[in-house]
Structures are given as C-alpha cells and as structure tokens.
C-alpha cells in the first residue's frame, strides 16, 4: 500500500512595501522636471546649430560703431570758429572722431569715414595752423591746382594737394581761414574717394 506524499507547500509571498501618496507625487514631479529641462534645452541647441551653420568670411572687416555727435558738440563748444561736421547718409561708416592736440600739439578736430565704395575720406580742422601742422595732415603732399567744390559755405575754391601713395592723404583739398571763418579745413583721403567727395562735402554743416 503506497503512502501518499503530502503536497509541497509554497511559502506565502510577502507583499512589498506600499508607496505613500507623497512618494508617488515626488516621482511624478521628478519626471516632469527632467522632461521640462530637456524641452528647454532643445531651442538653445537649435539656435546654436543655426549660428554654427552661418558661414564666416574673415575677409569682411568688423566695422566699428563710432559715436560722433557728442564729440562734435564738444568741439563746437570749445572752438572760436564754425566747426565743420559731416552728416553723410548711413552708408558712410564713421571710423574715428577725436579732438586732440595730435598735430604739432595744436587742438585739432578730426573725423574719418569709410565710404560706400570702401574708400577712406576724412576732415581735419584747426585754427592758427603752422607749416608743420599742414605737413603732418597733408603727409608732405605737394600743391596741385585749385578746384571748385561746394561745402557749407556754398561753392568755394579749394586747393588740391597730392600726397604719397598709399596714405590717408593721397588726395587732399584745403580751404583757408579767410573762407571758413577763422580755421583751416583739410578734406583728405584715398585717391579713389574723389568720386564721392561732392556727396561728402554737401553733407557738412558748420556749427558755431
């Protein structure tokens, strides 16, 4: 007679610890925080990718943004003569504007531009100038001829000078104190700027 084998008893599984509502809420908030962080980073990454894709041309110069109005106002306040202030269209890029005793230690107003055609054109003005001042501004250029140009005083006779090349006074046009109200004005620049000279001079205003 066979003896019946008692059935093997499987131990009861103990239920795992139950998460409290607070724990569930923390997990849900953590999940939302990670998702929100990822979503916020995506636009930044997209902008960076667009910026990286823009081609950079090292041959294109970085143009300075020179503020000229404050300097011009200061020069007008300090000077006993009408100050010539160019006001060309926005295509003209101001590169330098200063009032310093830079030429023969004489107080001098100077402003220069890059023209729309990429040339250089400047205006330099002072009172009671010396021969040394003229030599420094004109780069020891030689007198060439008289030319009729229209500035703030209407059509006047300027003396044209030819300077060394390359320089910032390859061509220059000078007007003396008897025609400007007490100062010497020299407009000078690269030879290629001669075609843009009339537009530049017509934009000049004399400030007392």
**Class by SSE composition:** alpha+beta
3D shape: elongated
Helix and strand run: HHEEEEHEEEHEHE
Please indicate the percent range of residues in DSSP E strands (runs of 2 or more): 25-35%
Low-confidence stretches at least 5 residues in length (pLDDT < 50)?
8-12, 48-60
Distance between the termini: 136 Å
What is the average of the pLDDT values? Answer: 83
Question: C-alpha Rg, in Å?
Answer: 38 Å
Strand order of the largest sheet: 2-3-4-8-7-6-5
- Proportion in helices: 25-40%
Summarize the main sheet. 7 strands, antiparallel
Tally of contiguous helical segments? 5
Detailed description of the structure:
There is one protein chain. The chain is built from five helices and nine strands, in the order ααββββαβββαβαβ. It is α+β, with helices and mostly antiparallel strands. The longest helix is centred in the N-terminal third of the chain and has 33 residues. About 9% of the residues have low confidence.
């Amino acid at each position: 007679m066979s003896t019946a084998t008692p059935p093997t008893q499987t131990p009861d599984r103990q239920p795992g610890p139950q998460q409290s509502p607070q724990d569930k809420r923390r997990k849900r908030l953590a999940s939302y925080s990670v998702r929100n962080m990822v979503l916020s980073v995506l636009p930044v990454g997209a902008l960076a990718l667009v910026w990286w894709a823009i081609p950079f041309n090292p041959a294109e110069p970085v143009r300075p943004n020179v503020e000229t109005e404050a300097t011009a106002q200061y020069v007008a306040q300090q000077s006993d003569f009408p100050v010539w202030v160019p006001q060309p269209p926005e295509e003209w890029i101001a590169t330098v504007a200063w009032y310093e005793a830079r030429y023969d230690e004489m107080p001098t107003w100077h402003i220069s531009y890059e023209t729309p055609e990429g040339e250089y054109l400047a205006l330099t003005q002072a009172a009671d100038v010396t021969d040394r001042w003229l030599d420094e501004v004109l780069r020891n250029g030689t007198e060439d001829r008289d030319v009729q140009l229209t500035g703030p005083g209407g059509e006047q006779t300027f003396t044209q000078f030819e300077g060394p090349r390359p320089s910032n006074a390859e061509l220059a046009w000078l007007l003396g104190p008897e025609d400007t109200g007490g100062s010497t004005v020299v407009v000078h620049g690269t030879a290629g700027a001669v075609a843009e000279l009339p537009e530049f001079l017509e934009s000049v205003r004399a400030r007392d």
